[in-house]
Amino acid sequence: MNPVVQVIRLAATAGESILVDNVCFDVWPGQVTALVGASGSGKTTSALALLGEHGNGVRLGGTVEVDGQVVVDRNGPTSAAAGVKGRVVAYMPQHPGSALNPARRIGATLRELERLHHPTENVVVEALRAAQLPSDPKTLKRFPHQFSGGQRQRIAMAQALTCRPKVLVLDEPSTGLDSITRLQLVSELEGLADGGLGILLLSHDLDLVRALASQVVVLSAGQVIDSGGPEVLAVAPELAPAGTTAAGKPLLKAMSLSASLRPRGRDPILHGVDLAVRPGHCIGIVGRSGSGKTTLARCVAGLHERYTGRLLLDDQSLPVLRKRSLEQNRRIQYVWQEVRGSFDERRPVDQQVARTAQRLRGLRHTEADAEAVATLARLGVSAITAGRPPSRLSGGELQRAALARAVLAHPDVLICDEITTALDDHGTALVVELLTELKDRGTALVWIGHDLGLVAAVSDHVLVIEAGRVIEQGPPATVMTEPKHDLTRRLVRAARIGHRPPDSPPVLTSSNDTRSEPRR
Amino acid sequence: MRSYAAQRAALALVQLAVLSVLVFVLTALLPGDAAEMRFTETLTPERISRMRTQLGLDQPALERFGHWFGNVLTGDLGTSLISGGPVADIIRHSVGATLVLTLATLAVVVPLAVVLGIVMGTRENGRLDRAITSVTLALSAIPDFVIAVLLVAVFSLKLGWLPATWVGGDLLASPALLILPVAVLFGRTVCLLSRQVRAGTISALQAEYVVQARRLGVPRRQLLLRHVLPNAAVPGVQELARTGDTLLGGVLVVEAIFAIPGFATALVDGVETRDVPVVQGLTLVLAVAALVINLAADLVCNRLVPRTELLR
Amino acid sequence: MKARLPLAGSVARLPLAVSAVLVVVPLLVAVFGPFVHLEAAPGLPYSSQGVLGTDGLGRDVLQLLLSGGRTALGMAFGAVLIAYIVGGLIGLTAASTRHRWLDEALIRPLDVLLPLPSLLVISVVAVGWRASALAITFAVAMVNVPTVARLVRAAALDAASSPVVEALRMQRESWFGIHLGYVGRAVLGPVAADIGTRITLAVFLVASVNFLGLGLSPTAPDWAVSVSRNREGLLLQPWAVLAPAFMLVSFTLGFNLLADRLVHRSRRLVEVAR
Amino acid sequence: GSGGEAAAQPRQGGRLRAVYAGGGAKEVLDPHVQSLFVDIARHKAMYEKLVELGPDLKPVPRLAEKWEHDAQATTWRFTLRDATFHDGKKLTSEDVLYSLARIADPAVPERVAQSSLATLDLRRSKAIDARTVELVLSAPNAEFPALLAGIGTQIVRDGFKDPTKPIGTGAFRFVSFDAGRSLVASRYDDYWDEPARIEELHILSAESEARANAVQGGQAEYANDMTATFARTAEAGKTVRIVAAKASTMQAFVMKVDRPPFDNPDVRMAFKLLADRQRLVDVVLAGRGAVGNDLFGKGYQYYPADLPQRERNVEEAKALLKKAGVLNQEIEFLTADASAGFVEAATLFAEQVAEAGVKLKVTTGSSQTYAKDLLTKGAIGNHRSGAMPIPQYITDRLLTKSPFNVTHWRRPAFDSGFAAAQVLTDETARSTKYGELQQTLRDDGGIIAWGHPDYLVAVSAKVQGVAAVPPNTLDSGRFDKVWLA
Ligand SMILES: Nc1ncnc2c1ncn2[C@@H]1O[C@H](COP(=O)(O)OP(=O)(O)OP(=O)(O)O)[C@@H](O)[C@H]1O
Ligand SMILES: Nc1ncnc2c1ncn2[C@@H]1O[C@H](COP(=O)(O)OP(=O)(O)OP(=O)(O)O)[C@@H](O)[C@H]1O
Ligand SMILES: [Mg+2]
Ligand SMILES: [Mg+2]
Ligand code: NI
C-alpha cells in the first residue's frame, strides 16, 4: 500500500521569516496521521500545503505529492493543485460552523458539490449518513442557523465527505467541545478511517491524538522535532484529586438561585442552584456546554441581573453589581470566559490591568502599574507584550492578563470561567501555581472548566450541572471515581480517552447533545 | 414568523395613525387656508369667506380631522379643496409618472450597481476598482439639479437629441422622454448602491464559508454567483430601501425641471395651496409605500441570508 | 438604523492635495468671500462685462460668487451640527439609560417619524416660513435627527452592552470613565464615517430647496439660487450658472473624496492593528 | 402688425400644441369660474362671449352682432348672431339669460364675473325674441358692453349644469381635460366664423422653463407668456419665432396711500421720481417693454397719451423726502415670486431708492398668498396687471368699494367723477372725463407704473397667423385663425 500524501522537505517562508522548514510526513489510506505542536508551530501552514494553498505573502517550497500528483514543488504550488481541491483532499477548518454559508440551504450546497465532483452518483445521502445526520428532504431544506453547534460541525463534515476525498484534513476539531461530544467525534473519525479514508489531524489536544493517531508528527517552531507512533507522546500524568482540607464558615453562599434570560422568569437557564464556598476553598463546576455554568458565575459576580434566590457574602445579602459597595465589589471578582471581548481595543493591556488596583484598592498610578507588571510577569506575560493593545496579544496571553486584572483587586472570592482553554501545559501550570498561592492566603475560588482532570486537581468540592440544575456534588475524589448520576459517569468516562480505551461505545444519538435541538 | 408579521403590521398601523395627526398639525401650522389660496384679483373678501364656509374650513380643526379620519377608515380619501375632485383621483394621476420614473431608474441602476459592485469587490483596490470608485463618486458629488441643467443645455438645447420636457410629449410614443430624467437620478443612486454591493462582496469573499467552498473545489463563476452574490446583495437591498426617501427628494427636482406631473410636485403643490386632504392622502400613500418597502426589504434580506435578525 | 457600512471602501485615488483644494477653495470663498467688495458697475442682464460676466439682473457674477457661499454651505453645516447635537443626545441617552421605558420613549417616536417624507417637512417649513435661512436649516436638521439618533444609539448600544463595559464596571470605573472613555470613543468611528456623507447630503438638500424656489429669496446671491435663476440664460452667459455650480460640485466632490480617504485610512489602521 | 410673415396660402389640418402657464389643481373647466390664463385660453377655444375686446381694448361684437342702448345707458338690446352650439342647437336669447343667471348665482361665490356684472338686473331683463335680448341695469353704465367682454362671461347653453361636459359655440369642441396638464379639443366644423384650419388643439400647462424647452424641442408649437431672456436666446436660433405685442401689460409698484409714509403725497411723489424706469425696463424686462408714466393702459382706449413722461429726479425727490422727514428711514417692501420680475424689480428699486437715502427692505413672501397679502399687508409692493379696458381697471382697483384696491385709493370725489363719466353716452365727453381722472391718479395716486412689458409669445417656425395683440383681446390666444405651414 502506498501513502496517499507524501510531504517531503516542505518549506514555507514569509519574507525573511521561516514559518515551516524541512517538514516531512505521509498520510496513509485508512489511517490517522496527527500533526501536533504548540500554537503557531506551523500545523495549519503545513496542512494547507496539501491543497497548494498558502497565506498572503507566504512562499511554499519542497515537494508535496497527493495521490500521485505533485501539488507543490520547488517553485511553489503547481497547476495540478486546482484539481486536487475537494476531490482528493478535503479540508475542515478550525471552526467549521462559520464555514457554512448562512444564505444557502444545506441541501443546495451538498448537491452543488455532488454535481461538481460526482455527478452520476448519489453521494449526498451517503455523506450525511457517514456524518451521522438524517438525510430526509426536510433536513436538507434547513439553513445552517437552524442547527445546533454540534450538528453544524457534522454538516461541515458532510460537505467535505460529499466530495468523497481520499484525504480528510481536520484542523483542531475538538476545541470547545465537552468531553462527551469529543468522544463522539473520536468514534466518528474512527469509522471514517475504517472506511479507507486517510485522515490528517491537526491538534494540540494530546489525548485526542493518542486515541486516534497511528502516526504522530511533532512540530515545534516550524520544524519536525519527533515523529513515529503515538508512543512519541509522553503519557499524561494522572492528576491526583485534591482532598477536602480547610473547614470553616462559608464565605459565599447562594441559595436556590434561579436565573432566566428574559424578564419575569421567561426562558429560564438556572433552576434552584445552591452553592457555598469557604475561605481558602475551591469549588469546581463542570457540565456540558450550554448547561448554565457561565450564567451561574455571572449571577454570583452580579453581572446577570435576572435571577431569584439569595446571595450572601459573610452572611450579608449581596445585591447585583451596580448596587454593590466598593468593598463588596472588590471582594468578588470574575474572570471572563471570552476574554478578548472584555478588553478595550484602544488601550494597552497593562493599563487596563492596573486600573483594578487603582479603582478598587486606591493605589496610586505607579504602584498599580508596578503590581500589574509583576503579576503579569509571574503568569509568563512580559511587560513588552502587555504594553500592546489587546488585538496584538495571543489568546493565551490575554487569558492570563484577564486573570491578573481580577487578581489585582485582592479578591476574597475569585470566579474563574474556563480560564485555561487557550493555554498550553506550561501556561496552565503558572496559572495553577498563582491560584494555589491565593487559596493558601484564604481566597475562595469558583473554578469552571471542562477539563475534568484539571478541575479535580484544583478543587475541593465539585458540582455537576446539567440543564441549569445541580445533578451531583461531592469531593472530587468521590465524584471522579464513583459517579452516581448517569451524565457524570459519561463525562468521567469520556474524559479518559487517550488514557485508557473507553469501556463501552459512546451513545451517539443527537438527543444527548444539549445544544442539538434545532433552533428557529 | 406570523407573530413577527403581526407585530410589524400593528406597528405600521400606529405609525400611520400618528403620522396622519402629525401631517394634519403640520399643515394646520401653515399660515392661510385653501380658501385664501383661491383668492384672485376678482374675488371679494366677502366671497372668500363664503367659500371658506362651503369648504367647511370654518369648523374646528379637531372636527375636520375627525371627519377626514373617519372617512379614511371607510376607504374614502376625501375631495380636494382646490379642484373639488376626489383625492384618490389626484393620487392615481400623479403616482403613475413618478412610478414610471422610479422604476425606470431602478431598472437601470440596480443591475448596473450589482455588476459594478461585484467587479469592484472582486478586484479590491485594483486599478479597475479605483477607476469605478472615482467615477461613481464624482457622479454622486454633483447635485442633481446641476446635472439636470447641464444635461438639458447640452443634449436638448444645443444638440437637440433628446426631449427636455414632458410637456407635449407622450411617454408611449417617445420613450426617449425618460432618458434625461433617469440620467439625472442615476448618478447618486448607482454610487450608493454599487458601493454597498462592493462592501458586501468584499466581506463575503473574505468569509470563511467562501474560502471553504473554494477549498472544496467550487469554481470561481459558481462561487461568485451562488455563494457571494446573495450575501453581497443584503447591504444593497437595505440601502435600496433607505434610498427611497432620498430618491423622492431627487425626484422633485427632476419633476420640476422636466415638468413631469408626478407625486413630488403634487405634494409640494398641495402644501403650497393648503389642500390639506390632498397632502394627507399623498403622505398616507407615501408612508404606506415606505413601510411596505422596508418590510419587503427585510423579508428579502431574510430570504437571502436567513440569519439576518428580523426585529432590528 | 444600523451603522452604515462605511460608504467609502477604497482610497481616494486623486492625490490628497487635489481633494483638499477642491474642498478648501469653496470653503474659503464661503467664509471670506462676503468681506470682499469688488468695484463692479451694474451692467445689463447676461452681458460679458467683468471677469465672469453678469447675471440676469446685471449683477457681477464674481461678486455674487463671493457672497453666495455663506448660505449655500453654512446652512448645510448648521443643519448637520444641529442634527448631531439633538440626535446624538437622544441616541446616547437612549443607549446608556438603564430604564427601558426611557429608551422606548426616546426611540419609538423616531420610528414613527421615519416614514414621514422629508420632502413634506421641508416643503411645509419652506412654504410656512418662506425665505428664512434659519427655518430651512432647522427643517433639514430635523429631517436628519431620526437617522442620526438611531445611528448613535446603535453604535453606543453595541458598545454599552459589550463585556468591556461589564469589565469596567467590575473595576468600578466611574460613569464618565465608562461613557466618555469607552462608549463615546466607540461611537466616534461610525459617526465620523457618517458625518462625511451627511454633510454632502445636507448641501444637496439645502441646495435643492433653494433651487426649487422654496428657500431663499430669488435674488439672493446663494450659489444654488444663482444656478436656478440663471439657467434660463445658460446659453447667453454660461458663467452665471457654471461658476456657482462649479463651487457646489467642487465642495461636494472634494468632501466625498476626502471622506472616502479618511474612512479607508481608519479601516486600514484597524486592519493593521489586528 | 401680424406675426405671420405674409406666408403663402393657409394650410388645413394638423395638430397644434399650445403651452400656457399652468395652475395645477387650481385649473377649472367651468367657464364662469376661470381665472388663470390657461383657463381663459381653454374656454376661449370652446366658448364665446357676447362681446370681445379689440386690440385697443375697445369692445367689438362677437356672439352679439350689434347692440343699442337707451339714452341713460340703462337698457341694452343685443342682437345675437346665427351661431350653433356643438350639440347642434341654435343660440337663442334664453341661452344668454341662462348664462347671465348662472354667473350671478349667489350660492357659487367663485363665479368671477359676479362683481363686474353686479349692476345687471336680471329680473327686468328679458328675451325680446329668439335672437334679441334686452338687458336692464340697475345703474346706468355706458361701458356695459366692455363688462360683457370681461373674464368669465362666456355664453353657455340653456340648462348647462355639468362643466365637465363643455358645450359652447366656439371653434373647437371638447375632447378631454386633465387639470394641470392638458385639454384636447377638435375642430368644430359648423363654426359660424369660418371653421378653424387646424384639426386638433392641445392646450397644455407648464412652468416657464418647460414652456421654453417644449417649444424649442418641438414638443409644442405655441408657448404663451415667455420671458425676455428666452426671447433673446430664441432669436439667436431658427426654430422658434417670437411674436411680441408691444407694451401690452403693466408692471408697477403700489404704495398704500393711507399708510405711513405713503399717506404723505410728497413721499409718493418722491418715490415716483426715484424710479429709474429705463434701467428697470432694461434689466427686469431685458429691454423688452416701454417705460411707464404711472398710469395703466398705455395705448388703450381712453389713455391720456398727451401727459408728459415722468423722468427720474433724485435731487427733487431728496428734497421732498427731507420735507416729509423720512430720510434714513427703513421701509419694508413686500414682494414675492408670484409673477416674473417681481423680486428682481423690487431689489433693483431698493437700490435706486437707496441713492436718496431711504432704505427699502425687500421681504419675499409667499407667492400663493401674495395677491391677498398685497391687499392687506405692508405699505409698498409689486403689482402687475394684464390687459383690460381702463374703466374696468378703475372699477376693480381704484374705487372706494373696489375689491382689489391695493393702493387703498379711496377718494369720494374720484368715485363720483368716475360714476359721472360712466353714464356719459358720448364717447368724446367720456374720454375727456376719464383723462382728467387719470391725471389725478398719475400725480397723487399710489401707482408707480414703471414699465409696460411686451407680451411675448413663442411659436415654432411653421406656425402662421398668430397676431401680436395684448392678452385678453379677441385675437390673442385665438387658434381658429392659425395654421401650420
Ligand atoms: N500569511 C502569513 N504571513 C506571515 N506569517 C504567517 C502567515 N500565516 C501564518 N503565519 C505564521 O506562521 C506560523 C505558523 O502558523 P500556523 O497557522 O501554521 O500555526 P498553527 O500551528 O496552525 O497554530 P494554531 O495552533 O494556533 O492554529 C505562525 O507563527 C504564524 O504567525
Ligand atoms: N444571550 C443569550 N441568548 C440566548 N441564549 C443564551 C444567552 N446566554 C446564554 N444562553 C443560553 O443559556 C444556556 C446556558 O448558557 P451558559 O453560557 O451559562 O452555558 P455554559 O455552561 O457556560 O456553556 P459553555 O461551556 O459553552 O460556556 C445555553 O443554552 C445558552 O445557549
Ligand atoms: Mg492552526
Ligand atoms: Mg460558559
Ligand atoms: Ni436602520
Automatic annotation (TrEMBL), chain A:
Pfam families: ABC_tran. It comes from the Bacteria. Residues 495-520 are annotated as: Disordered. SMART domains: AAA. GO terms for biological process: transmembrane transport. One of its GO terms (molecular function) is ATP binding. Residues 5-246, 252-492 form the ABC transporter domain. Transmembrane segments: none annotated. Gene3D superfamilies: P-loop containing nucleotide triphosphate hydrolases. Keywords: ATP-binding, Nucleotide-binding, Transport. Belongs to the ABC transporter superfamily. PANTHER family: D,D-DIPEPTIDE TRANSPORT ATP-BINDING PROTEIN DDPF-RELATED, TRANSPORT ATP-BINDING PROTEIN. This is Peptide/nickel transport system ATP-binding protein. It comes from Kribbella antiqua.
From TrEMBL, chain B:
GO terms for cellular component: plasma membrane. It is found in: Cell membrane. Its main location: membrane. Gene3D superfamilies: MetI-like. Keywords: Cell membrane, Membrane, Transmembrane, Transmembrane helix, Transport. InterPro entries: BPD_transp_1_N, MetI-like, MetI-like_sf. The chain crosses the membrane at residues 95-119, 131-155, 175-193, 247-266, 278-297. It is a multi-pass membrane protein. One of its GO terms (biological process) is transmembrane transport. Pfam families: BPD_transp_1 (PF00528), BPD_transp_1_N (PF19300). SUPFAM superfamilies: MetI-like. Residues 95-297 form the ABC transmembrane type-1 domain. Coiled coil: none annotated. Belongs to the binding-protein-dependent transport system permease family. PANTHER family: DIPEPTIDE TRANSPORT SYSTEM PERMEASE PROTEIN DPPB-RELATED, PEPTIDE ABC TRANSPORTER PERMEASE PROTEIN. This is Peptide/nickel transport system permease protein. It comes from Kribbella antiqua. The lineage of its organism: Bacteria, Bacillati, Actinomycetota, Actinomycetes, Propionibacteriales.
UniProtKB/TrEMBL annotation, chain C:
One of its GO terms (biological process) is transmembrane transport. Pfam families: BPD_transp_1 (PF00528). Residues 69-259 form the ABC transmembrane type-1 domain. It is a multi-pass membrane protein. It is found in: Cell membrane. One of its GO terms (cellular component) is plasma membrane. The keyword Transport applies. InterPro entries: BP-dependent_transpt_permease (IPR050366), MetI-like (IPR000515), MetI-like_sf (IPR035906). The chain crosses the membrane at residues 12-36, 72-94, 106-127, 133-152, 195-216, 236-259. Its main location: membrane. Keywords: Cell membrane, Membrane, Transmembrane, Transmembrane helix, Transport. Belongs to the binding-protein-dependent transport system permease family. This is Peptide/nickel transport system permease protein.
